């Protein structure tokens, strides 16, 4: 367990927490990247998925995009983007790749959630004279919320993981501590970085879990 | 001094036939390493997942912890997973395989368990009534009926493994990922694009192959299963 001890020493050293290569800055970078990309992906994917789900069209498309997304290596996309003109925009390649990978789970989960709303409830709402917009926002969306949120959670965890890979392609974030450790041939630093990254990912998963638990019982029971 | 050749390699174009021709062996080696790492990890994953799933179904109490642990492992980013295993395996192919096995476990355990749980109770009772013992029941009734769900998990695990192998480039065992990593550092566009496309092709081919195997193994499921 000497490696873990050395990793702990590395983490405990205050010098490693300061400056633009420090843990503090990398954590902040990782958090900002994740949040910005999650918001952008939600803004792109959710309206499309909700409208398609409401209309009941494009289901095959939503599911297929998700399957194709899994076959494309994140790392390859990052490097490809880095070598295109986008590569000159600083964090541009990272943001574009992250959004590309967060959109499919959001799209698929939100679409499936909308389609799994009990059709008799939708018919009842129509019978009550609700307009399409009212049905979407007051009946379908509230009932689909657990699955929509599940998609957001999958996307968030995927973003944290992909933001780590950005370091391989020269981007920022916590992964940088790991890649720097590899370059210095410092196993303690590599392990310390890995512990930080894994902890961050588990924390995000935990936060979403807690939010889902605390959500109103109407949405909490049918998870 | 001779003038440098004016071909697509010298011009550093994305698509380059000259690259394919001159680096054929390099690409072939990378593809082989990629296939090897993927296949070994998924097979070990399957060998570990099956007993875990059977255990989780046999003792209901074990299901919670087994699913929780595999899900937590799945949450850990791949770069961190490979790095955490570094002290145990060093810079080796085994390190990449170990990481990938841990990832495939979640998908496989979940799907095998779902498949086993989906076997109708009446079917089980009918088999018992015909005098089937527990082992025969498992091998000839339950496992075949659980196969479609298990195969769905296997397909996802395989496709994900193909794409995750590339991250193994950080320790030098990333199959096509090695070429992508090297290509990035030298700004070699043809190499990055060719290796990336090959990765996707391997993933698609593996998926179709498994789909074919599934059709052969479960002829009763007909064409509905996709």
From TrEMBL, chain A:
Domain of life, per lineage: Bacteria
Native organism taxonomy: Bacteria, Bacillati, Actinomycetota, Actinomycetes, Kitasatosporales
A Pfam family this chain is assigned to: BPD_transp_1
Organism expressing this protein natively: Streptomyces nodosus
Stretches that traverse the bilayer: 31-56, 68-89, 95-114, 135-152, 190-208
Protein name, UniProt field: ABC transporter permease
Principal subcellular localisation of the protein: membrane
Membrane topology type: Multi-pass membrane protein
UniProt-listed Gene3D superfamilies: MetI-like
PANTHER family in alphabetical order: GLYCINE BETAINE/L-PROLINE TRANSPORT SYSTEM PERMEASE PROTEIN PROW, POSSIBLE OSMOPROTECTANT (GLYCINE BETAINE_CARNITINE_CHOLINE_L-PROLINE) TRANSPORT INTEGRAL MEMBRANE PROTEIN ABC TRANSPORTER PROZ
Localization of this protein: Cell membrane; Membrane
Family: Belongs to the binding-protein-dependent transport system permease family.
Keyword line: Membrane, Transmembrane, Transmembrane helix, Transport
Cellular component per GO, a single term: plasma membrane
GO biological process: glycine betaine transport; transmembrane transport
Calcium as UniProt keyword: no
InterPro entries the record matches: ABC_transp_perm/SBD, MetI-like, MetI-like_sf
UniProt KW Phosphoprotein keyword: no
Domain ABC transmembrane type-1: start-end pairs: 27-208
From TrEMBL, chain B:
Chief place of localization: membrane
UniProt entry keywords in alphabetical sequence: Membrane, Transmembrane, Transmembrane helix, Transport
Residues annotated as domain ABC transmembrane type-1: 31-210
Subcellular location: Cell membrane; Membrane
Entry's transmembrane regions: 35-54, 66-89, 95-116, 162-181, 193-213
GO biological process, one term: glycine betaine transport
One of the record's GO cellular component terms: plasma membrane
Record membrane topology: Multi-pass membrane protein
Family matches, as InterPro entries: ABC_transp_perm/SBD, MetI-like, MetI-like_sf
Keyword Kinase listed: no
Any Pfam family: BPD_transp_1
PANTHER family: GLYCINE BETAINE/L-PROLINE TRANSPORT SYSTEM PERMEASE PROTEIN PROW, OSMOPROTECTANT IMPORT PERMEASE PROTEIN OSMW
Entry similarity comment: Belongs to the binding-protein-dependent transport system permease family.
Protein known as: ABC transporter permease
Organism, scientific name: Streptomyces nodosus
Lineage: Bacteria, Bacillati, Actinomycetota, Actinomycetes, Kitasatosporales
């Amino acid at each position: 367990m000497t490696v873990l001890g050395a990793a702990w020493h590395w983490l405990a050293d205050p010098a490693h927490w300061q400056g633009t290569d420090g843990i503090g800055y990398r954590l902040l970078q990782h958090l900002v990247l994740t949040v910005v990309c999650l918001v952008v992906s939600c803004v792109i994917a959710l309206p499309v998925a909700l409208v398609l789900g409401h209309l009941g069209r494009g289901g095959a498309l939503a599911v297929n995009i998700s399957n194709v997304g899994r076959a494309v290596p994140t790392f390859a996309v990052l490097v490809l983007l880095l070598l295109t003109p986008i590569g000159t925009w600083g964090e541009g390649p990272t943001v574009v790749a992250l959004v590309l990978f967060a959109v499919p789970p959001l799209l698929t989960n939100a679409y499936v959630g909308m389609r799994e709303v009990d059709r008799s409830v939708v018919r009842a709402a129509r019978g009550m004279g609700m307009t399409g917009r009212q049905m979407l926002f007051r009946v379908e969306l509230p009932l689909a919320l657990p699955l929509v949120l599940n998609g957001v959670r999958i996307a968030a965890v995927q973003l944290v993981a992909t933001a780590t890979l950005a370091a391989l392609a020269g981007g920022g974030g916590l992964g940088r501590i790991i890649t720097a450790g590899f370059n210095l041939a410092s196993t303690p630093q590599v392990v310390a970085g890995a512990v930080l990254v894994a902890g961050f990912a588990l924390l995000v998963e935990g936060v979403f879990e807690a939010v889902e638990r605390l959500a109103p019982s109407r949405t909490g029971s049918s998870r | 001094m001779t003038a440098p050749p004016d071909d697509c390699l010298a011009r550093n174009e994305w698509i380059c036939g000259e690259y394919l021709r001159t680096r054929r062996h390099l690409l072939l080696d990378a593809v082989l390493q990629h296939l090897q790492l993927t296949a070994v990890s998924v097979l070990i994953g399957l060998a570990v997942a099956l007993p875990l799933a059977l255990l989780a179904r046999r003792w209901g109490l074990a299901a919670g912890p087994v699913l929780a642990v595999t899900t937590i492992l799945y949450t850990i980013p791949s770069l961190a997973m490979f790095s955490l295993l570094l002290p145990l395996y060093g810079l080796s192919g085994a390190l990449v395989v170990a990481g990938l096995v841990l990832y495939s476990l979640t998908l496989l355990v979940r799907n095998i368990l779902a498949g086993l749980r989906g076997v109708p109770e009446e079917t089980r009772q009918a088999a018992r009534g015909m005098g089937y013992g527990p082992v025969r029941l498992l091998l000839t009734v339950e496992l075949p009926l659980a196969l479609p769900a298990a195969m769905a998990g296997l397909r996802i695990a395989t496709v994900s493994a193909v794409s995750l192998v590339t991250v193994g480039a950080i320790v030098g065992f990333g199959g096509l990922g090695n070429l992508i990593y090297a290509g990035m550092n030298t700004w070699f566009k043809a190499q990055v694009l060719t290796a990336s496309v090959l990765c996707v092709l391997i993933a698609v081919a593996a998926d179709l192959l498994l789909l074919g195997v599934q059709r052969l193994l479960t002829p009763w499921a007909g064409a509905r299963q996709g």
